[in-house]
Amino acid sequence: MSRKTNDPLHQLRHPVAGLIRLGVLLGGVGALTSLLPFVAIVELGRVLLSPGPLDIVRTEITALVIALALALGWLCTGLALWATHLADHRMQAALRRDLVRVLGRVPLGWYSDKTSGAIRKAVQNDLEELHHLVAHHDVERIAALVLPASGLLYLGWLDWRLMVLAVVTFPVYAVAYAWMMRGFGDKMEQLDASFSRVSAAIVEFVHGITVVKAFGQTGRAYQGYREAVHDFSERYAGWVRPLLRLEALSSLALSAPVILLATLAGGAWFLARDWVGPLDVMAATLVAMALPQTLLTLNQGMVAQRNAQAAAKRIASLLAAEPLPESRHPRQPAGSAVEFEQVSFRYGDGHEVLSDISLHCRPGTVTALVGRSGAGKSTLATLVPRFHDVSAGTVRVGGVDVRQIAPEVLYQKVGFVLQNAQLVRGTVRDNLCLGRPDAEEAAIIEAARAARIHDRIVALPRGYDSVIGEDAVFSGGETQRLSIARMLLADTPILILDEATAHADPESEARIQDALSVLAKGRTVLVIAHRLASVMTADHIVVLDGGRIAEQGGHEALLRRDGLYAHLWRLQTGPVEEAGEWEREARA
Ligand SMILES: Nc1ncnc2c1ncn2[C@@H]1O[C@H](COP(=O)(O)OP(=O)(O)OP(=O)(O)O)[C@@H](O)[C@H]1O
């Protein structure tokens, strides 16, 4: 495979490559025609200054050429930018569609803080980088090349010495520039790494600010940030100081007065030797003056190309995210039993976090998963809606392996309320109706009432049509109750409840528990809870330890067994010192 076909930027631009080429071609023609007026002006000068009577026809033709060339140059450049903007628009639309398609197919477990950050960066910044390159720099770069190149050719056609005259200050610039760019890639990488450390220090500082302040450690936390910034500024200054001296020298070589001085002095010398005429010197001066802009644009184009290349790589890696495998012959689950048969699971290449789990949750019953922190409760529960697929064994819903159920059918069967319930942008109604867009008003209100959130909603300025974030900001407990109402409306026969009361205060927790008991009625429920008191009435309690089932049964039977459950129970319900021990264990 060639390097080009491996290049993500090349691949992303491939579908609109024809339009981009058209834009570049038109941009080149536009640049060429914008040179014509300068040439024509020089030629016009020759006509006007030539001895004898004025050649009216030649004068008029030259003036017409100037006007036409100006109009054509303007038209071509306009059309070029139109073509590249159209290409960019099509490419961005296709990329956004592809991103949505891919993101809609990845397993739910793929989403994490890291991937969410990458998606935000791709949609906000990376697509913008591609826009700069495709819509602007390709056209600007070709114009920046064609204009001076054709100018130099014109000079060469007049007299080769004029061509040399126009670039006489270039060698100084070229040597200084090559010197500046030595090891540029490595230095940029070091600067990037140093800047990433500054960003990480800022994020760490801002995220932990409440804890840091509460423990009076602001100075210490700030120290990390200060050190990262100091390191960055040292590196930056060490790199930039010598560059600035060279930059000053190279910029001097390309400054207007130096170019004017060099071309006029050289031109005077040429004139004295009768090699060229005064108008030829003027043409050389005009071309020489246009060259610095070319270098500037080419430089910017190189930076844009590099940024777009990095952006394309990030977008391509998002687009390459593995979709959730779907069965070619999906089967329809019958009923709402959930079964785990000899299930084992590991995240990626990590260690096994679940080993040989066999469990049967009968329809209409509540099964509680309890155990120490990190025992594997959430992992086990989220295997049911296929956040991840098992490494070994089978998870069945309604008697069918979840991998053989079409995802949309699975989500109609299995609903979940997780620790950090999410609200989407839109109205309260939009949020409630996510799982049932055609829900009637009466059903929406009934669900909100049952979830103990109706009164809070009607107190908002626009009731159910209030926009979240604009008309209303919901607390963690209220968000949980909204997501419970959403689940009630979606009416899935199987429910996964993961620490739904984790972030609630006692009053809010009581209301959430109320709402949950309405939600759980008649459904197969798999509930995860740290607080054992909240699940002691469950039909079946499964105690996980180190990814294995340590024991299972009813609350009383487990207490009588005097195993891990009884131990955890005593820690939670015992004296304060022991409760402290539980907290420590829970966090271990
Ligand atoms: N996305 C992930 N990638 C890698 N490892 C993970 C991931 N999520 C969880 N783990 C690991 O899997 C193990 C089980 O985690 P899990 O969250 O299922 O436990 P838990 O019993 O629900 O814990 P808690 O009660 O604290 O929520 C832990 O060792 C955890 O570090």
From TrEMBL:
<protein>
    <submittedName>
        <fullName>ABC transporter, transmembrane region</fullName>
    </submittedName>
</protein>
<dbReference type="InterPro" id="IPR003593">
    <property type="entry name" value="AAA+_ATPase"/>
</dbReference>
<keyword id="KW-0472">Membrane</keyword>
<keyword id="KW-0067">ATP-binding</keyword>
<keyword id="KW-0547">Nucleotide-binding</keyword>
<keyword id="KW-1133">Transmembrane helix</keyword>
<feature type="transmembrane region" description="Helical">
    <location>
        <begin position="163"/>
        <end position="180"/>
    </location>
</feature>
<dbReference type="InterPro" id="IPR039421">
    <property type="entry name" value="Type_1_exporter"/>
</dbReference>
<dbReference type="InterPro" id="IPR011527">
    <property type="entry name" value="ABC1_TM_dom"/>
</dbReference>
<feature type="transmembrane region" description="Helical">
    <location>
        <begin position="278"/>
        <end position="298"/>
    </location>
</feature>
<keyword id="KW-0812">Transmembrane</keyword>
<dbReference type="GO" id="GO:0005886">
    <property type="term" value="C:plasma membrane"/>
</dbReference>
<dbReference type="Pfam" id="PF00664">
    <property type="entry name" value="ABC_membrane"/>
</dbReference>
<keyword id="KW-1003">Cell membrane</keyword>
<dbReference type="Pfam" id="PF00005">
    <property type="entry name" value="ABC_tran"/>
</dbReference>
<dbReference type="InterPro" id="IPR036640">
    <property type="entry name" value="ABC1_TM_sf"/>
</dbReference>
<feature type="transmembrane region" description="Helical">
    <location>
        <begin position="20"/>
        <end position="41"/>
    </location>
</feature>
<dbReference type="GO" id="GO:0016887">
    <property type="term" value="F:ATP hydrolysis activity"/>
</dbReference>
<feature type="transmembrane region" description="Helical">
    <location>
        <begin position="61"/>
        <end position="82"/>
    </location>
</feature>
<keyword id="KW-0813">Transport</keyword>
<dbReference type="InterPro" id="IPR003439">
    <property type="entry name" value="ABC_transporter-like_ATP-bd"/>
</dbReference>
<feature type="domain" description="ABC transmembrane type-1">
    <location>
        <begin position="22"/>
        <end position="307"/>
    </location>
</feature>
<feature type="domain" description="ABC transporter">
    <location>
        <begin position="338"/>
        <end position="571"/>
    </location>
</feature>
<feature type="transmembrane region" description="Helical">
    <location>
        <begin position="251"/>
        <end position="272"/>
    </location>
</feature>
<dbReference type="GO" id="GO:0005524">
    <property type="term" value="F:ATP binding"/>
</dbReference>
<dbReference type="GO" id="GO:0140359">
    <property type="term" value="F:ABC-type transporter activity"/>
</dbReference>
<dbReference type="InterPro" id="IPR027417">
    <property type="entry name" value="P-loop_NTPase"/>
</dbReference>
